[in-house]
Amino acid sequence: MIDAEPDARHGLIMSFGPIRRTPIPFEPESGSDALAVMDGLSGDMADLIVGAAGCSPYLKSLILRECDWLKMALACDPALSCAQELDSLADCALPDLSARLRRAKRRIALLSGLADLGGVWSLDQVTGALTDLADRATHTALTALVAEEIRRRKLPGKSEDDAATGAGMVVLAMGKMGARELNYSSDIDLICLFDEDAFAPDEYHDARAAFIRVTRKMCGLLSDLTAHGYVFRTDLRLRPDPSVTPVCLSMDAAERYYESLGRTWERAAYIKARPCAGDLAAGARFLDRLRPFVWRRHLDFAAIQDAHDMRLRIKAHKGLGGALCVDGHDLKLGQGGIREIEFFTQTRQLIAGGRDPDLRSPRTVEGLAALADKGWIPPDVAEKLTAHYIEHREIEHRLQMVQDAQTQTLPTRPAEMDRIARFCGLAKTDAFRTRLLGRLQDVSSLTEGFFAPDATECAEPDLSDHAQDIVAGWLAYPALRSDRAKQIFSRMRPKLLTQLYTAADPEAALAQFDRFLGRLPAGVQVLSLFEANPQLIDLIVDICTTAPRLAAYLSRNAAVFDAVIGGDFFAPWPGTQALRADLAARLGELDDYERQLDAARIWAREWHFRVGVHHLRGLIDAFQAGAEYASLAEAVLGALWPVVHAEFARKHGHVAGRGAVVLGMGSLGAGRLNAVSDLDLIVIYDAAADAQSDGRRPLDARSYYARLTKAFLTAISAPTAEGRLYEVDMRLRPSGRQGPVATSLPAFEAYQRTEAWTWEHLALTRARHVAGSPDLAAAVEAVRRRVIADKACGATIRADVADMRARLAQAKPAHGLWDAKSGPGRLMDTELAAQFCALASGHHACRVEAQFQAGQRAGIIDKPAQELFLSAYRLCWTMQATGRLLADSTPDIAALGETGQNLILRAAGADSVDALTDLLQSRAKAAAAQFDTLLLQSEPRP
């Protein structure tokens, strides 16, 4: 320790730090007694000692007892003095540990108290120093006791070296200790676990008994009151089912409890959990396994009601109801107190933290800042609650410093209230009361509206007899089976019915919502989401009145509503590269393959829903929607390919060469999908014919890439717990269904040059790299361009296309008047014309518009013909894409509801159903006639 030296003004050279505030001594004579033992102190430091001892009998006793040490400590940075005291615990023998721990507690309590009162340390530094003491004391006690068990041969299979890491036992710090927010006279909440995998099955019971003994002795070593005082009161009641479980239980038993019986308050508790003593690595693994329990993957608005109910139960149990009054108020649990700020923060974290790891901070102030930064609470609310929280905690510390009592209750006696006001540096108690009352009221008003369900009454609309029958049947649905779901629904029902009856066809909207509700497997989460976010009721009504297919999709995938309120839902499309990077980062956070596949499905589902809602609400048109669906598919394939490859390589290693590429064909290759499109894919690889993979189960190159391709297709199309990503069609690969699922680059080129039919060359005009090796992709693209250029000189292109067109017309005739896809001059026909233009001109363009432009530049079609084809194509795509958004099959526009009709008519630029009928027929007829003329011309000679 640094020696103190005299100073002309202060008597000692102080490294303690600048003193920014001092308490006013409530008992000046007690302050003078403390100052008398601190030889040579003057100025601000003397005022701090007098104020601290003059307000706190406990601090006075510590100054008198530890004055020699304190004189030296004040010559150092307080953080250094605390660290030196903790380091002195190292290698302390077990018989001496009790006294040494209590000495450390006295000294750090004294120094941190003075640093707090003098404003030398922030609240964060004060609570951090107290938490460091708790961590070191717990770990030192645990390891010493475990070492004793090992010496007594009570821990099978463990040596003295294992004692330093607890021999498989870990202590989880919970509550304020876990968050490094310990208050001045806090007890510490601990959960003691042991890793059963560290022991053989026949050693389990001996180990369990030894760890139970260690836990009991550790608690006594920390909390027993001796002649030297105590260290920390310990509380083990946060462990699973504490009335029937031992004080230390296996991690497996704890995990099984939380998976089956864990409650919302336990989830909230684990926000702050961290390993603090013993086997920290095992503790971290346990918390990682528990993460799905704590952080639900969906927005969890049901947690709001749980938190509200919990608050009411605490207030009822503690008798904390009634009017707000400063005298006798519980600063922790009472109205406007610390717990309300913590509940407010933790509940919001539980709602959204499963989706956003940035919101998972265990610390209250950091949590408020993160919630404000991510838009979950207004910044001014976060700022106010942060300021109130810090001042509440500082007053809490002063209440506890008086007698080292674990209390948060404000005095009822006027003299003791005067003491607390002086301790806070205020000479007038009325000013202290007024300031504190204002803060309590502000906290209450800021948080109460968030917790309490909206009790605003709304009159229900008059319902027809048929509508009343529909509504009466809702209580029989699975979504409203539980009492809790019924309570939530009863509160939101008036607003819901009112919104449904603002639709153009209220009865149809009600019937569609009835189908949505009837398909929901459960209701508490979805209904809580609606109740907390009334704008979602508007959205579901909009969907039910316009897009029955989307409403049916939502009933099976209601979690996609999370995306509406969980981010920039209505922001512009971020682009394929940004999407791929985002999904890759999401998948990179997971180390389990099945979880990665599920995460990809959840992520893609939300973005897919976003495109549909944007299209439905007119934020984008059918062409932009088509491009975004294709961009999403490309991002998914691009991010998932390396994940599948890495998982496959764990068994089979890698093959020398440039790897493989995935080509998008058909609509994906053309960069335009609709809401229900499947994906046409082919896989091409580059490796020597005799190459072998280098893994523990080697494969030849052909088998390797065939099996890798099948693994990739399974990852995309196999149903998991979260459904499937896409249906996949690989019939466009060389030799179709009979060909290998993956083709080598030389074989692909040879096939395209010597064996492929004209229809396969037409398909090649829309092939585009969507995943896999960029290096190989460039080589494949070069081959594609050469093949198309060479085939442009083919003598039978027109005849082959005419034959193919006739076959398509026979195999896929139009299904009714409103079929925009099949039939002469409609979508498939105009896309075929575009592919013909690309192939006949030898151009590499993939997109329909660019293919027609290539044909026009090559003289295959003239400008009027190009515009005629595009006019029909644009109308048919608009009708097809919009129709697929609204219904699973080709919709009968005349039978659609008024809102759905208006959407299609508006998109197509028609005033009425009859006008749209005429427009579709005339444009299709003109395009079909133009295609007929085109195919009757002589073969081109580029």
Automatic annotation (TrEMBL):
<dbReference type="InterPro" id="IPR023057">
    <property type="entry name" value="GlnE"/>
</dbReference>
<dbReference type="InterPro" id="IPR013546">
    <property type="entry name" value="PII_UdlTrfase/GS_AdlTrfase"/>
</dbReference>
<dbReference type="GO" id="GO:0000820">
    <property type="term" value="P:regulation of glutamine family amino acid metabolic process"/>
</dbReference>
<dbReference type="GO" id="GO:0008882">
    <property type="term" value="F:[glutamate-ammonia-ligase] adenylyltransferase activity"/>
</dbReference>
<feature type="domain" description="Glutamate-ammonia ligase adenylyltransferase repeated">
    <location>
        <begin position="53"/>
        <end position="287"/>
    </location>
</feature>
<keyword id="KW-0547">Nucleotide-binding</keyword>
<dbReference type="InterPro" id="IPR005190">
    <property type="entry name" value="GlnE_rpt_dom"/>
</dbReference>
<keyword id="KW-0460">Magnesium</keyword>
<dbReference type="GO" id="GO:0016874">
    <property type="term" value="F:ligase activity"/>
</dbReference>
<keyword id="KW-0808">Transferase</keyword>
<feature type="domain" description="Glutamate-ammonia ligase adenylyltransferase repeated">
    <location>
        <begin position="540"/>
        <end position="781"/>
    </location>
</feature>
<protein>
    <submittedName>
        <fullName>Glutamate-ammonia-ligase adenylyltransferase</fullName>
    </submittedName>
</protein>
<dbReference type="GO" id="GO:0005829">
    <property type="term" value="C:cytosol"/>
</dbReference>
<keyword id="KW-0511">Multifunctional enzyme</keyword>
<dbReference type="InterPro" id="IPR043519">
    <property type="entry name" value="NT_sf"/>
</dbReference>
<keyword id="KW-0067">ATP-binding</keyword>
<dbReference type="Pfam" id="PF08335">
    <property type="entry name" value="GlnD_UR_UTase"/>
</dbReference>
<keyword id="KW-0436">Ligase</keyword>
<dbReference type="GO" id="GO:0005524">
    <property type="term" value="F:ATP binding"/>
</dbReference>
<dbReference type="Pfam" id="PF03710">
    <property type="entry name" value="GlnE"/>
</dbReference>
<keyword id="KW-0548">Nucleotidyltransferase</keyword>
<feature type="domain" description="PII-uridylyltransferase/Glutamine-synthetase adenylyltransferase">
    <location>
        <begin position="322"/>
        <end position="451"/>
    </location>
</feature>
